Amino acid sequence: MNLIETFQNLVAQVPELVQPLIVAAAGAIPFIEGEGAATIGIVGGINPVVAVAAAVIGNFLCVAALVLLSSRTRTAVVEHRNRTRERESVLAIGHGGVAPAASSTGDPTTTPASPRKAKFQKAFERYGVPGVSLLGPLLLPTQFTATMLAAAGVGKLRILVWQAVAIIGWTTVVAVIVGSAVFAVG
Questions:
Q1: Which residues contact 175 (CB under 8 A, 6 or more apart)?
Q2: What is residue 104's predicted lDDT score, i.e. its pLDDT?
Q3: Would you give the end-to-end CA distance of the chain in angstroms?
Q4: pLDDT for the residue 84
Q5: In whole angstroms, what is the distance from residue 174 CA to residue 145 CA?
Q6: Quick one: pLDDT at residue 39?
Q7: Cα dihedral value 180, 28, 21, 166, nearest 10
Q8: Which pLDDT score, from 0 to 100, does residue 78 have?
Q9: pLDDT reported for residue 112
């Protein structure tokens, strides 16, 4: 039994009042997300509007937590690197040396890019935050996309707004398709 079947069985076994909470929990899991969670809820017999709302809330709360954590982590790393560079510069000058040269990119968080990171960077430069947020779910879970945007230094509010638009949009589109199919078959 896979994770989706587990959630579907769980939705069928719990009281109606608890079912949206199960759908929200499923929405927080990468690769299931809002789209899969709404599908689980609709197939499980939950009202499609309730299933979509629960799935969106679960997916968005997880993304918001990751964005806030990633943004805070990035800020701490950048501040630590800046303090370290300042200390090294003061020590070098104080001992009659020359201050170390700044990095060639000017970004203290720059590291050699992996192929996946390079692909993300290329898409980010081409489409910006809206494009990466709206098209990202086709390739990666929203949790991964949002975390990479925060790590790239994009503002939290900007990420959260565009991720909310993407989560609501994709979840609604998939729910309409699944709901229509369930209605046509049933």
A1: 35, 38, 39, 42, 48, 51, 52, 55
A2: 45
A3: 25
A4: 83
A5: 19
A6: 96
A7: -40
A8: 84
A9: 60
Instruction: Determine the residue type at 71.
Output: S
Token couple for 122 = 């290329």
> Which residue positions in the chain have pLDDT lower than 70?
1, 92, 94-113
CA 42 – CA 34 distance, rounded (Å): 12
pLDDT of 105 reads 47
Q: What is the residue type of 180?
A: S
Helix (H) or strand (E) holding 92, with range, is helix 48-94
Give the Cα separation of 182 and 51 in Å (integer): 14
Check residue 139 and give its pLDDT: 84
Residues 87 and 66: their CA atoms lie apart, in Å, by 31
Domain boundaries, the chain: 3-97+114-185
Q: Which residues contact 142 (CB under 8 A, 6 or more apart)?
A: 33, 34, 59, 63, 133, 136, 163, 166, 167
Tokens of 14: 């719990």
Q: How far apart are CA 100 and CA 115, in angstroms?
A: 30
Per the listing, tokens 């001992």 go with 95
CA dist list (Å): 158 to 61, 67, 120: 15, 11, 17
pTM (two decimals): 0.79
Q: What span, in angstroms and rounded, lies between the C-alpha atoms of 3 and 32?
A: 9
